[in-house]
Amino acid sequence: MDVTPLAATEAEPGKELGEELDRIRSEVIAARGADDARYIRAVIATQRGLEAGGRAALAVSLFPPAWAAGTAMLSVAKILENMELGHNILHGQWDWMGDQAIHSSTWEWDFLTPAEAWKHTHNHLHHTWTNVVDRDRDLGYVVFRMSADQSWHPRHLAQPLYNFVLAPLFEWGIALYDLEPEAVASGSRSWRSFVTDLAGFARKATRQLVKDYALFPLLAGPSALPCLMGNLTANTVRNLWSHTIIFCGHFPGDVQTFTEEHIEGETRGQWYLRQIQGSANIEGGRLFHVLSGNLGHQIEHHAFPDLPSNRYAEIAPRVRELCEKYDIPYVTGPLWRQYGSAWGRILRFAVPAPRRPA
């Protein structure tokens, strides 16, 4: 975790790397077409079918088998909508199709935080300033200390507890994070803009809560209570899964962090290098990658955030070969290992540790 990033030690480490990665990007853009469109439409159809089936089963969920089947189908539907659809559509990965139904400017996902707020904090801030201390708010989500370059405060002693609580409530944590309350406290954001965004969140959260915890349970009649519990369980499963995938892709121990000095005069090639060093992949089969929104290929996603997610598995071997060619660490491993490593990072930086030498 304290290894000095390559981008800080070499004047132009990524020039050739950047040119080769740009070539991969251009090839994928030129090859996008009917197969990609069929893929995303098949995912949408599958997700909607699972949600409809889950809702129907939960409507008669006084019968335990119906409750189990409905909750399972709705859980998978919510995971697909959040990971492979919402996250990737809002990145503009499918804007090239010209279909307004799945365009980044029109999609609103099944998540508490409004799409526009998330696109600002995630697409703009995180993907531009990946793992740069004091620039990337995703580095610790304001409450966690994840780098030796972050100052330690006594509150960090409790960050293992924060993470334990955050996992099942992840959508609430993200919604609060997207409001940027700390920016208001520091004076870098006006109260007016905060109140405007807070009102937008309140409207979105009200719709979500009414849908899952009032409308569908009421429609279920005698099955209202088990239907409500099934919806609550599905949302919790989705939160646990998305939290796990995101933390495993960003916080394993070998993922690097950077200071603002590291990115002074950063070139396109060095930006690519930072994205690779600041991300980690998770190994798994095809179904795992679909359910993770193809974020098991987090390195490829950070290098090419707006390429269709179904293309990441195709280009991952080429990106890894380039990393081997230029002697750049390519952090990858099975889910259990990355999850354990991320927890190790949380525990390590919960206690005071020497800051990295300048």
Automatic annotation (TrEMBL):
Residues 66-332 form the Fatty acid desaturase domain. InterPro entries: FA_desaturase_dom (IPR005804), Fatty_acid_desaturase (IPR012171). It holds the Pfam family FA_desaturase. This is Acyl-CoA desaturase. The lineage of its organism: Bacteria, Bacillati, Actinomycetota, Actinomycetes, Kitasatosporales.
